């Protein structure tokens, strides 16, 4: 069993660089299904989820190589259309291959991605949109989805919720459809804009990415492209919270400051000094954060992927804060773990009330999902004593070399193998 062990209580100081964005690179990788030839994705992080997506693409007949920070993905044009269950179950984002495979091959068969630690996470919006594009979809008694379409046809789609994954899947499918597609109430996340930029470099005709109406004029064929992935705004935000929680001072580089406006605003409201620079932020933590209320929302609102880390910070605030989670149905499992470290938190449905305490104490805790794991690292770095974090495979899905990066700015943190 592997654990992350942290000796807390040290203010972190120095410079730390953010990697390429996990949630951008996964759809970019799926987009390489849309064109024959070698696509190159530069500044790609090497993470467990990237390995899983590479395995999914390999299972479909593509060849993925990771060379000096770039993913080289060769699509020779002979694609299988049935990704293996084991991979689809391992990572929900595997479902992003559905739109491109349907557009290229006219058929896909894959298992339904299961629920996960943060709630049910259905895929009805993906399927409704693909049906509107002309796909015939059936789901059998064993939970396999089969989608077929001789050629997708452009259409008007309105998403009931601005789902990131559904917007991405539908953009990729519509890029090769016959005629024009309009996606209304589309997700506006920076990862959508990044995908749109790569698709445009491949020859797609897309307008409006980054707003809630995306217009796509289908083309007959796309070509491979070279594209640089955007920096990971959630990794950046996690480091900002770590500077604040440890009362330290970090210069965080490779940050697009516009992407983290809501996090910067909440940190400032909590009394943390944040200076924005050309390529990064300088965060100076104070002695104790001021309590603040946070509501998660689709972009440009406060990201649900920063909620757990912010909760860890607010456990140390000088008063009571309320966090409301509106994006996922069950994303407070980290609260129980933080309580093991002496935090005072009460959850009720979609809300959590956090009464700040003067100090957290090291404990044995679990990373119940990726961002919950990041919250454990925030709390452990701020706490007195030693914390052992289990289930670190969740953390490794989304944070590249987290122990190495934090050690370089003064943290006592390491991965330990336990028999
Ligand atoms: N939803 C539906 N039906 C659908 C699709 C989504 O009801 O067909 C619901 C979900 O159940 C959820 C909400 O809509 O309650 C938002 O889901 P969305 O589809 O926007 O999320 P996603 O595409 O599955 C991506 C990120 C998540 C991030 C969310 C929200 C990737 C690979 N994952 O997931 O990242 O939390 O957007 O911003 O891009 C993480 O990195 O820790 C993570 C979970």
Keywords:
single chain, 419 residues, alpha+beta, UDP-n-acetylglucosamine1-carboxyvinyl-transferase, Chain, 4-stranded mixed beta sheet, 14 helices, 23 strands, elongated, binds uridine-diphosphate-2(N-acetylglucosaminyl) butyric acid
Q: Which percent range describes the beta-strand content? A: 25-35%
Class from helix and strand fractions: alpha+beta
Strand order within the widest sheet?
Answer: 21-22-1-23
- The CATH topology of the largest domain comes to UDP-n-acetylglucosamine1-carboxyvinyl-transferase, Chain
Mean pLDDT: 96
Catalogue the unreliable spans.
none
Q: Label the CATH architecture of the largest domain.
A: Alpha-beta prism
Radius of gyration: 21 Å
Count of distinct strands: 23
Q: What small molecules are bound in this structure?
A: uridine-diphosphate-2(N-acetylglucosaminyl) butyric acid
What profile does the largest beta sheet have? 4 strands, mixed
Helicity level, as a percent range?
25-40%
**Total number of helices:** 14
Domain module tally: 2
CA-CA gap between termini:
6 Å
What do you see in this structure?
There is one protein chain. The chain has helices at 22-31, 48-59, 85-90, 98-105, 124-132, 164-175, 190-201, 233-245, 261-269, 307-314, 333-340, 370-382, 393-396, 402-407; strands spanning 2-7, 13-17, 37-42, 63-67, 70-75, 107-111, 136-139, 144-148, 156-158, 180-184, 205-207, 213-217, 226-228, 249-253, 273-276, 280-284, 294-295, 320-324, 344-348, 351-355, 364-366, 386-390, 412-417. Helix 4 runs parallel beside helix 6 (164-175), helix 6 (164-175) runs parallel beside helix 7 (190-201) and helix 10 packs parallel to helix 12. Strand 21, helix 12 and strand 22 form a beta-alpha-beta unit. It has a four-stranded mixed β-sheet with strand order 21-22-1-23. The chain folds into two domains: 2-19 and 231-417, Enolpyruvate transferase domain (UDP-n-acetylglucosamine1-carboxyvinyl-transferase, Chain); 22-228, Enolpyruvate transferase domain (UDP-n-acetylglucosamine1-carboxyvinyl-transferase, Chain, Alpha-beta prism), CATH 3.65.10.10. The longest helix is centred in the middle third of the chain and has 13 residues, at 233-245. The termini are close together. The chain contains 14 helices and 23 strands. By secondary structure, the protein is α+β, with helices and mostly antiparallel strands. It binds uridine-diphosphate-2(N-acetylglucosaminyl) butyric acid. Uridine-diphosphate-2(N-acetylglucosaminyl) butyric acid binds next to helix 1, helix 5, helix 6 and helix 12.
């Amino acid at each position: 069993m592997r654990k992350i062990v942290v000796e807390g209580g040290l203010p972190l100081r120095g410079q730390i660089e953010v990697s390429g964005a996990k949630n951008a690179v996964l759809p970019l990788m799926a987009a390489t299904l849309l064109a024959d030839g070698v696509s190159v994705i530069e500044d790609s992080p090497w993470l467990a989820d990237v390995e899983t997506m590479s395995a999914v693409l390999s299972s479909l007949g593509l060849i993925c190589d990771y060379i000096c920070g770039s993913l080289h993905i060769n699509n020779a044009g002979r694609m299988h259309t049935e990704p293996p269950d084991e991979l689809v179950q391992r990572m929900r984002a595997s479902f992003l291959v559905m739109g491109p495979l349907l557009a290229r091959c006219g058929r896909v068969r894959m298992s339904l991605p299961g629920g996960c630690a943060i709630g049910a996470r259905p895929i009805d919006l993906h399927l409704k949109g693909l049906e509107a594009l002309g796909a015939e979809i059936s789901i059998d008694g064993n939970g396999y989805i089969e989608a077929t379409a001789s050629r997708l046809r452009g259409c008007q789609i309105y998403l009931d919720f601005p789902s990131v994954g559904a917007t991405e899947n539908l953009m990729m499918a519509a890029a090769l459809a016959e005629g024009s597609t309009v996606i209304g109430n589309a997700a506006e996340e920076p990862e959508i804009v990044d995908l749109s930029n790569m698709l445009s470099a491949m020859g797609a005709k897309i307008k409006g990415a980054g707003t809630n109406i995306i217009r796509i004029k289908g083309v007959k064929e796309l070509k491979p492209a070279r594209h640089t992935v955007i920096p990971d705004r959630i990794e950046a935000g996690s480091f900002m919270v770590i500077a604040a929680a440890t009362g330290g001072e970090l210069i965080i580089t490779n940050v697009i400051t516009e992407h983290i406006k809501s996090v910067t605003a909440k940190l400032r409201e909590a009394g943390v000094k944040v200076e924005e620079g050309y390529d990064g932020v300088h965060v100076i933590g104070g002695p104790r954060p001021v309590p603040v209320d946070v509501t998660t929302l689709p972009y440009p609102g406060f990201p649900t992927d920063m909620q757990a880390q912010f909760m860890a910070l607010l456990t140390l605030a000088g008063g009571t804060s309320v966090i409301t989670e509106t994006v996922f149905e069950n994303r407070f499992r980290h609260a129980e773990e933080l309580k093991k470290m002496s935090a005072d938190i009460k959850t009720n449905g979609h809300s959590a009330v956090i009464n700040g305490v003067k100090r957290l104490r090291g404990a044995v805790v679990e990373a119940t999902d990726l961002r919950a794991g990041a919250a454990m690292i925030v709390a452990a770095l701020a706490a007195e004593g030693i914390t052992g974090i289990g289930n670190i495979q969740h953390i490794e899905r989304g944070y590249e070399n987290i122990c190495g990066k934090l050690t370089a700015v003064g943290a006592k943190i390491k991965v330990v193998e336990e028999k």
